[in-house]
Amino acid sequence: MMRKILLAFNALVYLFVLAPILVVIPVSFSEKEYLVFPPQGFTLRWYVNFFATRELADSLWLSLHLALWTTIISTVLGTMVALALVRYRYPGRQALREFFLTPIVMPRLVLGIAFLMFLSKTIFSGRFGGLLIAHVVVAFPYVIRTVCASLVGFDRALEEAGASLGAAPLTVFRTITLPLLKPGIMAGAIFAYVTSFDELVMTLFLAGPRLTTLPVQIFNYLEYTSDPTIAAISVVLIAITTGAVLITERIVGFSQFV
Which DSSP symbol is given to 41? Predict the structure, then answer.
């Protein structure tokens, strides 16, 4: 009896969480020129409108480009920091670990204001580089966490065996360490990509006329229009995010990092 109650409760929780997604997908194919549920008719007009609207299409490519560079930089920096935090003992190591993970729990509103004030005094103000720096700061802690999780159970005897056979330190790192850390690194990279691609609140403070990401463009679009184009955009974002999550789960699973 208890098992059935738990299953029913879990089903209700899943339904509550997935309800918005279950609504927005069919609405994106509705023929009506306004958001309505249940949808009426079937059309791909709103998807065509999404990619045909230059502002929306440009913001999509900007978000993809920004997320790609954020992922590359975050993965490199996060892996280096994780190695330094796990493998070496020095005063303040634990405090340094907490400092690097602070952006995960820091309100995006606070970070947005802080970056706006800081970048306004630099050459990166209103530029792609400034937005990239902000996204790296909020994304690379996820790489640190996943790589640290991989390093905790790492058998260093394998590296010692490679070194004893005459391999140089760089060769040991490239042929032994990196392949064994690959699951954690890839998981962190995907988390970094999704974090950057979906970031809205902080980006609102840093975006400009020629530097508007897709989440910000959606926010602005909703101020004046409520047609199903928004639903179509949402479905595209859901597909990108879900694809990244499925890739992560297929490669390493989430149980190692939660």
Answer: S
Domain with 236 in it: what CATH number?
1.10.3720.10
Q: For residues 203-226, b (16+ Cβ closer than 10 Å) or e, as one string?
A: bbbbbeeebbbbbbbbbebeeeee
Whole-angstrom distance, CA of residue 219 vs CA of residue 233: 12
Side-chain-side CA neighbours of 43 within 13 Å: the count stands at: 14
Position 70 scores a pLDDT of: 93
Separation in Å, CA 70 to CA 140, 145, 153? 8, 16, 27
In-domain check, residue 168: yes
Residue at 30 is within a domain: no
Query: Measured between alpha carbons, how far is 189 from 140 in angstroms, rounded to an integer?
Result: 8
Give residues with Cβ within 8 angstroms of 69, minimum separation 6. 132
The number of domains in the chain is 1
**Rounded distance, CA 84 to CA 93, Å?**
9
Splitting the chain (258 residues) into consecutive groups of 10 residues, what average pLDDT does each group show?
76 77 78 72 80 83 90 90 82 82 84 84 80 89 86 71 72 76 83 87 80 83 78 82 73 54
For residue 73, what are its two tokens? 């930089």
CA–CA separation, 189 vs 199, rounded Å?
15
Widest distance between CA atoms in the chain: 70
13 lies in some domain:
no
pTM (predicted TM-score): 0.80
* Three-class secondary structure of residue 184 per DSSP: helix
Is residue 133 situated within a structural domain? yes
How high is the pLDDT of residue 257? 47
Domain span holding position 142: 62-251
Question: How many CB atoms neighbour CB 105 within 10 A?
Answer: 8
